[in-house]
Structure formats: structure tokens, C-alpha cells
Amino acid sequence: MTRLTPMTTRPLQMSRRALLLASGAGLAASALPFGPLRAQPAGNLAMCVSPEPNAMCAAFNTASPVTVVSGKMLEGLLNYDFDVSPTPALATAWEIAEDGLSIRFELRQGVTWHDGQPFTSADVQYSIMEILKQHHPRGRSTLASVTAVETPDDHTAILRLSQPAPALMYALAGWESPMLPKHVYEGTDVQTNPANNAPIGTGPFVFGQWERGSHIILTANPNYWGEDEPKLERLVIRIITDPSARAAALDAGELHLAGDGPIPVNQVQRFVDSPDFQVETRGTEMNNSLDMIHTNLRNEHLAKLEVRQALMHAMNREQMSSVVYYGLAEMLTGPIPQTLPNFFTADVPTYAYDPARANALLDEAGFPAGADGMRFGLRLIAPAVGDTYDRMGQFLRQNFRDVGIDLEIIIADIPTFIRAVFADYDYDLTMYPGSVTADPTIGSQRFWWSKAASPGTPFVNSTGYESAEMDQVLEAAAVEPNPETRRDLFHRFQQIAMTDLPILPLARPIYVTIAAANVVNFVPGPDGIRAPYGSLAFT
Amino acid sequence: MKPIRRRVPWAFLARRVLYGVLAILAIAVINFFLLQLAPGDAAEALAGQAGTADPQYIAQLRAQFGLDQPLWHQLWAFIVRLATLDLGYSYVFNEQVSVLIFQRMPATLMLMGTALTIAVAGGIVLGVTAARFANRWPDRLISLGALLLYGTPPYWIGLMMILVFAVMLGWTPTSGMENVLAFNTGWDRVVDIAHHLILPAAAQSIFYLAIYIRLVRAGMLEILSLDFIRVARAKGISERRLSYRHALRNAVLPLVTIVGTNVGNFLGGAVLTETVFSWPGVGRLMFDAMFQRDLNLLLSILVLSSTFVIIANLVVDLLYAIINPTVELK
Predict the structure, then answer these.
(1) Which of A156, A429, B64, B272 is most buried, most CB within 10 Å of its CB?
(2) Which residues pair with A519 in a beta bridge?
(3) Nearest-CA distance from A362 to chain B in Å?
(4) Main-chain phi, psi angles of A521, to 5 degrees
(5) CB distance from B51 to chain A under 8 Å?
(6) How far is B200 from chain A (nearest CA, A)?
(7) Does the pLDDT of residue A23 top 50, yes or no?
(8) 3-state DSSP of B76-137
(9) How many other CB atoms are there within 10 angstroms of residue A154's CB atom?
(10) Chain B: nearest CA to A112, how far in angstroms?
(11) pLDDT (average), residues A144-159
(12) Is residue B45 part of a domain?
């Protein structure tokens, strides 16, 4: 079997002058900031995304593959570490005012766009006010409280807020809220600007070529601000839509890196055991995509709390973990996963696997079993993404049959699913991946807040759930500047959620990232393969 | 023997072209309404991929896509675009529709062309062989093989071929159209692409191959029992020459018909193969367009494919007359 090996490291290229200087300064020279003395990027690495991105710029489209590609070329004000605390990116320092009504960003000096123009505070102002607040799929809500961006000088940007927005600091990564060059976008139709398919950013990689249906080539940015970054000469992003084909490409050495749970889950263990590969389970802490069952409270059966409690008791979570997820999941106790320790609490009502209790609850609710042992039927609709929901559907069908509920499973393509669940409310139960993101105000609130419900808007409250206390807790948490008070509010949120049960939390699937044994820094932070990848390299 | 002189059937051609244009128009209109039946629209599909979207974003998208216009208006706009050969801009894929389609066309033509060539050549040789040895072991073997190939899903065959030939034996690449890390140019690139073409073309041809073998075999058996063959045999013509020169020419007509319709499926027929082998062809573009409800792009591909079908059928009809001079075009 032939394996592709990365190109051998090129010898350090130095001009004669630099070499003289270096030798003059002794061997410590490499530590000194000589301009021309950069380590030459080396190696061509192939990673993959799926499906094919529709564009290269995440400011207008935040579909997962778009964010992966965009995040290499376009940067944001902040990066994040594994604790999901902000770290410097285009902003080197930041300060939130005491009253929470303004955030001051010191911008990195000497940064240039890929076309050579300098990056300044005017770009920040333009990106936030003219692009993200107006055209980003969720920019209007995450940046809702931003009223203006002031630019006292070229390297300072001050965000003015109408009310404190503690969640805002978690939405400034490059793949989520990219900074765009004002001089390229101003005065054009921004939505069809050619730069959306060939971004001009500040990131470690420069757009090279996009062979639609096949691959995207990014090349090293020779003027990148990161010291000795990027390490790679080229990053090639292949589009491989079939999970088994991705596994085969990894096996054959044609692919060095793939993320977001790229291969069939039943093959993951094989890669874990293989010395040729590394499997990383971190890198989803910014996303925290959860599988949950959203009920439709308009249904006469589901409207009764006892029925929803019975469904919770009817599910064998331990078995679900191994049968549905092959062990690659955190089974949830509430709407916030343990990957967000600052918000998570285990102090919530729990529902152990107990079919007898479930049967009793259903009797109590007034839905006795018929002659065939069945009480009533429910329709479960899920989008056709991956094969997890097929297995989950079959699994739940068995669990629910044990308590006399006949589950009908409908797997639909995404537009059909969205129309049925979020526009027509034509479903009984539904499950789909919903992200908490790094802050529940951004990711969770929309599912539980009664005012988020809006027919025709996808991925918001579809259950018809309305609770005055829940609304009040969520609204208070959204503008609470004190972290401790805010944490307590979210603990209360989890308790109410698990008492009222409009949504039945199932699991946080662990989407692995797989890399060849000789690849380093492929999950450098909580954003996994969405990271800028300046440090990604071959050993 | 003097070559038969043939007049160009102008009246026939003119009539067929007119019918063709009408058929394309009808196909465009019918498909337009058919696709309206799919629940959900492009704005919802895009919003679905984005994970979240506020109502204003969706309204913005709808206005941009022209989905807020009345249906007849959308249809009229589409027909006008067709008539002026300007297929428009796809806001879903951020690119001109014609660029999207024609960028992907070479890959599909290459894949389908190779697959069909393999299938036709293999179908004829194996079909004739099977007929010549009817009900003896070569026939049994070939017929059983054809039945197996016909019954196996091409998708599965593709995956198995990847596993065996690419992963286990390492003879071919697993997927893609070229080695994207090699940055080949010129001749090296041609060789590299050909190397990548082997598996998908083989997988794609298998399905056709099975049909063609059975068609040729059946046609041959019928012709071989006719009187003129017996006469030819009595005149001492060799069995091989008898099969390929005398019988095949008559037996091949049904094959030509079927190949003609298969050529028509050229653009969209390879969706599964293109998916398994990550082949950047039109089939997958069509698949993506459907799932993202980019109806304008999808309709454009459908209209192009129907143009293909119509042209292919016309060519087949003309071929009939050449293969069998007793066929009259009118």
C-alpha cells in the first residue's frame, strides 16, 4: 500500500544579509524578530469538508462547511481557548465597561489584508455595522444591542451597546463573525461581491482556487502576523460527501485530516486502535450540538405533563448510548451539557429508565392501553442528516412500544423537515441537532423562550411552550453582567426546563476529528477544524 | 459494390427539431410545476444549513431569489431566461448557472463516455459470445454474471471496489478526479485523471453492461435462427464472421435504441457513482440543487438533459438508417 507523505521540509531560506546578521548575532538569532527570518511554510495537507460549501465567506452563510473554509482566510476579533475564554486574534486587548454598555478593543498593529492594504478600525466598524448586523444569518440577534462602533484611532474600536450583552463576547471568532475589508466591499452589492467566493482576509491562508465539486486550494499567507505561521505551504480542502469514502480516503493516505464526525460511527473504534491515526474528541466546545426531542404541545397527548414525563421514563439511556451512538456521546441530564461547566448543573429533576413508572403515568394521564396493548400513536420527524437519527428512531420506537405508544418515524430532507416543523407545526415529536454554542443565551434561549417562536423561522421554539418564569429567567440572564448571578439564572433555567419538559434532552454526540499520525495541532482550540490553522503542521 | 447514395432528409430533420423545441418547452413548464410540489424552498434550505436564521434574513433571501414573486411571474422569468440562453445567477451557489453547469460537464461526460464505451464494447463481445454458445457453459457463465451485476446496487459495487482495489490493493486512488496534492500539469495530469477514472468508470459501466449483454444475446439468438443465416452458413462463411458481420448488424438495433436513451441520462445518471467516488460531475450538482431547492439551477440542468435526450434520439434515428438501409426516415 502506498502512502502519500508530506513534502520534506525545505531548508530554511535566508538571504545572504540575513545569514550574516544571524551569524553575527550568534546562535540566539532565531529568537530575535528579524523580518525576513521566517521559517518557510512547508508541506501540503489535505483535509475534507462535506457537503460542498456554497460560498467561501461565513459572513453571509454560516453553514458548517462554509465556516470551516472561511475561518482559514478571514479572522475575527477574538479566538478562544479550551475553557472558551477569549484569546487575542485581530484584537490584542479588550475591556468591558463597568456598566456593560461598551466594549473597547485594541486592534493588532501591522496587520495587512491579503491584497496588501492595512487592516484598521474602519474595517471593524464596517464589518459589524454594515455586514454582520445586516446580512449575517444570526447577526441581527447576536449583535442586536450594538448601536454603534466608534473608531477613535486606527487601532481602537469601541462597541456601544444599548444594554449589557455578556453573550456577545462568545460570538467573535473568525468563522462566526469574520472581519471583512471595507475597501473591497464598500459601494458594491455585498451579497454578490466576488470576494465572497475568493475572500480577501487577514488569516494565515490565502484563497487559491476552488474547483467546484472537487477541492479548494488555500496557500500560505507570507505576510501573516502570527510568528512563524502558517506552518503549511498549502492546505487543500477536498469535498467528499460519502462517509465510507472518507474513511477509505483516510485509510489510503489521500486525506490527512477530517472533522465533524467524518466517518460512520461504527468505524471510529478502528481508527482509535490504529497506530496510523489520531482521534480527537475535543474541539466542539464552541458548538455543543445537542440531540433533543422537541415535543409539539398542541398535540392532545403531549400537552399533558404526565405523558412527557412518561416518555422520559420510557427511554433506556444507557442502552441508547451504546446502540445509537456507539458510546460516542455524553448522555444529557438537562438542556446544558457538561462541556459548559460555567453554566451546567446536575441539580435538576431526573427521570430514570422505568417503564413501569411510565405506564403508570400514562394511565394517570387518562390514556389507557387498548386491547392490543397500545395507547396512542405519535409521529417523529427528523432531518436526513447522517444515519444517527435512523438508528435513534428505531431505538425509540422499541422503547415507546413497551409503554404502549406507537411511534411512526419520518426522515425527511432538510427543507421538507423545516417546513413541517417550523412553519406548519405539523409534527408530534421531532429531533434535530441544535447548538447551545458557547453561551446559552445565543444557542439555548431560542428553543425555550416563548417570544422566540415565529412561524417560518427555523430552529426556534416550535413546541408552543410558554412559561412566564422561564421567559423572565432567560431575559434576565441575557443582560446580566455579573457572571455569578448569571450562572445562577442558568441553573434555574435548567431546573424549570427539566420540570416542564417541553423538550426531552437526549445526548451531546461527540463528533470526532481524525488525523494521520504525523499531523499536529489539528484541534488547537474549542472550535476544532474551524480554527484558523496557522499552527497546523506535519511532524 | 457501390456505396448507397443517400439524400439528406431535410424535411425529417426540420420536423424533428421543431418537435424537439416544443418538447423542451413542455418539459420546462411541467418540471417547473412539479418542483413546486417539493415542500420547503431555497431560503429555508439555506437557513437550515446555517443552523439559525432570523425571519428578516429569510425574507431577504426570498426577495433575492425572486421567491416572493407570484408563481406565473417566476415561470415567465425562467422561460425568458431559457429563450435568451441566459440561465441566470444562482444565489444559492453564488455563481452563474451556466458556469456552474459547464464547469461540471467535462467530468460527467468523461465518466459517462468511458462507462458507456466499456459497456457497449463489453456488451457486444459478451452478448455475441453468449449467443454463439447458447445454453453451453460460456453462455451460462456470462448470463449468470450479467444477472448478478444487474441485481447488485451500483452504489455497493462502488464501495466494494474502493475497498478492494484502492484501500487493500492500493492500485487506484479511492476517490476524486485527480491527486489534489500533486499539482500535476500537462501530460502528468492527464495520466493522473485517467488513473482516477478507472474505478468510477468501471462501477458506472457495470449496470449498463448487464443490460447490454442480455439485449445483444437475445437479439442474436433471434437473428441466428433466421433463414439468411442458414444460407450464409451453407455458403461456408466462418462462424465468427457470420456472428459479427451478418447477425450482429441486425441484432444491434435494440441496443442502439437503449444506448440512445442512456446517453440521454448522461447528465444526471451518475449521481450515485459521483457521490461514492467524489467525482465532481453534474449529477452531484443536480443532487445538491434538489436538496437546496435551487429550482432554477435544477430546471436548467433538467432542460439541458432533455435537450441531450432529444438530440440523442435524433442521432439514433439517423443511425438506424445507416445500420439498416431498409429503414426509411419520414
Answers:
(1) A429
(2) A538
(3) 35
(4) 60, 35
(5) yes
(6) 12
(7) no
(8) HHHHHHHHCCCCCEECCCCEEHHHHHHHHHHHHHHHHHHHHHHHHHHHHHHHHHHHHCCCCH
(9) 14
(10) 26
(11) 95
(12) no
Residues 6+ apart with CB under 8 A from A126: A180, A182, A185, A186
Say if CB B228 and CB B250 are below 8 A apart: no
Question: What interhelical angle do B71-83 and B295-323 show, nearest 10?
Answer: 50
pLDDT of A30: 40
- Selection from A247, A52, A199, A254 nearest residue B180 by Cα: A254
Residue of chain A with shortest Cα separation from B43: A415
Query: What one-letter code names the amino acid at B1?
Result: M
- What one-character DSSP code corresponds to residue A10? P
Cell of B117: 464505451
Which of helix, strand or coil describes residue B314? Answer: helix
From chain B, the residues in CB contact with A215 under 8 A are: 176, 180
Residues whose CB is less than 8 angstroms from the CB of residue B253 and which lie 6 or more positions away in sequence, other chains included: B219, B320, B323, B324
Whether A419 contacts B39, CB under 8 Å: yes
A212, A266, A359, B36, B298 from B303: Cα distances, Å: 21, 41, 56, 16, 9
- The amino acid present at B41, given as its one-letter code, is D
Which residue type, as a one-letter code, is found at position B151?
A: G
Q: Which amino acid is it at A318?
A: E
Contact call for residues B200 and B111 (beta carbons, < 8 A): yes
DSSP letter string over A385-421? STTHHHHHHHHHHHHHHTTTEEEEEEEE-HHHHHIII
Please tell me the predicted confidence (pLDDT) of residue A102.
Answer: 94
Are the C-beta atoms of A530 and A178 separated by less than 8 Å?
no
**Is residue B2 over pLDDT 60?**
no
Predicted complex ipTM:
0.83
Grid coordinates representing A416 are 421538507
CATH of the domain at B249: 1.10.3720.10
Nearest to B48 among A54, A138, A458 (CB): A458
Nearest to B51 among A4, A419, A435 (CB): A435
Neighbours of A370 (CB within 10 A): 10
B145 contact A CB<8A: no
For residue B63, name the pLDDT band (cuts at 50, 70, 90).
confident
Put simply, the answer to whether B174 touches A252 (Cβ < 8 Å) is yes
Domain housing B204: 106-291
Give the pTM: 0.85
Number of domains in chain B: 1
CB contact under 8 A, A240 and B177: no
Calculate mean pLDDT across residues B256-261: 84
Place of cell 461456408: B236
Domain assignment present for residue B37? The answer is no
pLDDT for A113 beyond 80: yes
Integer-rounded Cα radius of gyration of chain A: 25
* Lowest-confidence region among A31-35, A277-281, A369-373, B68-72: A31-35
Quote the cell numbers at residue A126.
464596517
User: Cα dihedral angle (B59, B65, B66, B70), rounded to 10 degrees?
Assistant: -80
User: B189-225: per-residue pLDDT in tens?
Assistant: 999 999 999 999 998 888 889 889 999 999 888 888 8
Maximum alpha-carbon separation in chain B: 83
What's phi and psi for A45, nearest 5 deg?
-115, 135
C-alpha cell at A425: 407545526
Residue B30 lies in a domain: no
Q: What angle do CA A171, A72, B293 make, to 5 degrees?
A: 75
> Which residue segments constitute the domains of chain A, with CATH numbers given?
8-51+212-275+529-538 (3.40.190.10), 78-185 (3.90.76.10), 289-509 (3.10.105.10)
Helix or strand run (H / E) with residue B32: helix B10-36
Handedness of CA A202, A205, A206, A210 (dihedral sign): negative
Q: Is residue B194 part of a domain?
A: yes
